[in-house]
Each structure stands twice: as C-alpha cells, then as structure tokens.
Specification:
single chain, about 200 residues, mainly alpha, Aspartate Aminotransferase, domain 2, 2 domains, 6 helices, 3 strands
C-alpha cells in the first residue's frame, strides 16, 4: 500500500500569496476607488527589452530547424551560458570563479525546495519571521520539526534577531523587502558562527 507524506498536513491551508491576493481582491471590490499598493508577491512591471525578444525568437527558430535543434540540455547547464555567467556576472566584478562552479537551474524556488532533501531532518533551522513561504513550507514538507523563528519587525528595524539556540541552517532573504534593510557583515559573521558553534 502506498502511504502519503503526512508532513504535508502540517502546512498552512492556504499559500500566503494566494491568501493575500484573495484579501486584496475582496478589499478592492468593497473599495473600488481605493489606490492599493500591493506588497505581496513580486511581479515584473515592464515588457521585455528588444534584445531579449530578439534572442528568444532566435532560440525558437533554432528549435524549429533539424540542424540547430537541441533536446534536453546538460544537467549543469549549457557551456556557452555558464561561460557567459562566469565572464559577465563574476570576472567583471573581480570574482575568480570557474565554469564548473556554475550550475544553471530552473529557478531559486525549486533549488530552495530541493536542497533540504540532502540535509538531515534533525537539523535545527532558523527562519526569519515573517518569511518567504517556500523556506518554511519546504522544511515542513521534509519533516523537519526543529524550526526557530527570528523575529523581524519595526522594533528591531526589520533586522532579524539572532536565535538563542544553535541552528544548523539559517535562511536569510536580504535585503528584507519591502523595507530594503540589509544585515551588516559583522552580524552575518555572527550568524555563521552560530551554525559552526559546537
């Protein structure tokens, strides 16, 4: 008999951003003239630039031609893309990095969810509160029970408090949108030290 992962039952009933969208829509219907500033899920506001559109059309044309068609890409990403990432995102900023250190994935959300699978369920995880929901939900889905919340509010200028107990993992999403605050380097070192402490 197949069993389900019962950890999913511990997740809140509704995804945070769906709930925010529902409440905003409900408010908008009751207050049609209200000027609403949305601070929920981020979204783009401008169309793609012509160079991007041009490159996308070129890529589609390549996929329509037998000589230039590409199937599934290499698991680490295409070499030409990884080389450009090394050159433009790192070397131009004075950062020495090699192509084999670059992994091209389908996005940070999937990576954030997948990385917890290689870490023990017994790890204590420190998460800011409030937090981007995927950090919390993926740990709950993995069965992790030791979750410590680092309060981030107006009283501490939205810089999360250091946890009193030793975490094994710390999730930070900075700058802390929408406040644009950031954690100073000294504090980051202290947080790293917490994880290294025996």
């Amino acid at each position: 008999m197949i069993n389900v992962n019962e950890n999913f039952l511990d997740i809140k009933q509704s995804y945070l951003f769906s709930e925010i969208a529902r409440k905003v829509e409900e408010y908008r219907k009751k207050n049609p003239k209200a000027d609403i500033i949305k601070l929920g899920i981020g979204d783009v506001t401008l169309p793609l630039v012509p160079k991007v559109i041009e490159a996308m059309h070129k890529a589609i044309d390549e996929m329509a031609n037998k000589e230039t068609f590409k199937g599934y890409g290499p698991e680490q990403g295409y070499d030409f893309l990884r080389e450009k990432i090394v050159e433009f995102d790192y070397k131009r900023r004075g950062i020495d990095i090699e192509k084999d250190e670059i992994f091209v994935s389908d996005g940070a959300k999937c990576d954030t969810g997948n990385i917890v699978d290689i870490l023990s369920q017994d790890n204590t995880v420190a998460i800011t509160d409030p937090v981007y929901p995927v950090y919390l939900d993926t740990n709950i889905m993995s069965g992790r029970k030791n979750i410590v919340y680092m309060v981030s509010n107006s009283e501490n200028n939205f810089i999360p408090e250091l946890p009193k107990e030793k975490p094994d993992m710390i999730y930070l999403c900075m700058p802390n949108n929408p406040t644009r605050n950031h954690i100073k380097q000294e504090r980051i070192k202290k947080m790293g030290g917490l994880c290294n402490r025996k």
